């Protein structure tokens, strides 16, 4: 349904709840809002969600929004009701938790089989987690075990989560890493993401690999938080060859791009590249927390060769509700959602690009499937536009290494008229 804004957001109930939250949660969030208000000249006080339905969110003041973020890209099937949440609820009533890596549930067996089958080669092995950061941590450990080389190549502008392993490889902004620098421990070389020059990027990767100390090349097939940037088609194939020559693993972080988001089950399928290890998260559970590190047999066998102890596990990893959610999501995406994302995304990007071309202000659009970035002139403009969109009933996020883009990743089930209505609204705002 189209937006319906009855009370200028944030309404009084949102303000009251936000003030209560501010009193008890991390002061970082309030500090960020204050800084953003100064940068943008636009108020940044938040709305508070009450419930969701399909691609709509309702706030506690009764406003209806179109959600173009889908819970940071995770709600592939939309808000409730959704098949993943329903499956998780049923599993929760029957068996909330099995015994992890000691005694599994049947749902875990089936989920691991289904996730292994997403890998483009037979024989893949799966290790489950809860968050995207868990999957990346597991992938980095896999590379260390399999190659015995502890260095990592990662990319400027990339985001892999904020627990210590992924944080060390976070290229989005040095400010994420700096306060914890001395605790990070992994030697990471950052190469430029090829948003401008492929040569420059590959030269940096080649240089790092020459040291012989790199066990993993960790890369997003498309930058997500970094601004929904699509690299040249030859980028992943080139990384594949360079990693092979250097005896390093190619680790693809498909936590945002995977599960149909870019118009294929895996974004790496667009370039035909087979990674050594793929990280899945976000949409894998359709809104229920589950992630997976899935890798080629020859990379993953290092975990067995390690010998007789379970050195990577977690209490809630692979819980029956999470596995049920993953099974339901995989089935839904296999049922045509990736193709739908490809078609809807292409039409939406064309609509937005036409609006940008006819606009008097400078902005542009890029993306693949339903993972779309709108490039604005600077971070202040992006924040102000995001705020103006909220006032009109559209929820978007800002992204990009300089915060100067809107990052859009709606549910794959969204109705096309909502995407078109957003394009019209954005064009009107930016004209
Ligand atoms: C590409 C990518 N990798 C990893 C992560 C981390 O996932 P999580 O926040 O679930 O730890 C994110 C989160 O935005 C992401 O976009």
Keywords:
431 residues; 15% strand; alpha/beta; Aspartate Aminotransferase, domain 2; 2 domains; seven-stranded mixed β-sheet; Aspartate Aminotransferase, domain 1
Q: What share of the residues lie within helices?
A: 40-55%
The CATH architecture classification of the largest domain is 3-Layer(aba) Sandwich
Query: Alpha-carbon distance between the termini?
Result: 25 Å
Estimated share of beta-strand residues = 15-25%
Give the strand order, joined by hyphens, for the main sheet: 4-10-9-8-7-5-6
Structural class: alpha/beta
Largest sheet descriptor: 7 strands, mixed
- The tally of strands reads 15
Number of helical stretches of at least 4 residues: 15
Give me the Rg, rounded.
21 Å
Bound molecules: pyridoxal-5'-phosphate
Q: How many structurally independent domains?
A: 2
* Parts with pLDDT < 50 across at least 5 consecutive residues: none
CATH superfamily of the largest domain: Type I PLP-dependent aspartate aminotransferase-like (Major domain)
> Which H/E pattern describes the elements?
HHEEEHHHEHEHHHEHEHEEEHHEEHEEEH
The CATH class of the largest domain turns out to be Alpha Beta
User: What is the global morphology?
Assistant: globular
Overall residue-averaged pLDDT value? 97
The CATH topology annotation of the largest domain reads as Aspartate Aminotransferase, domain 2
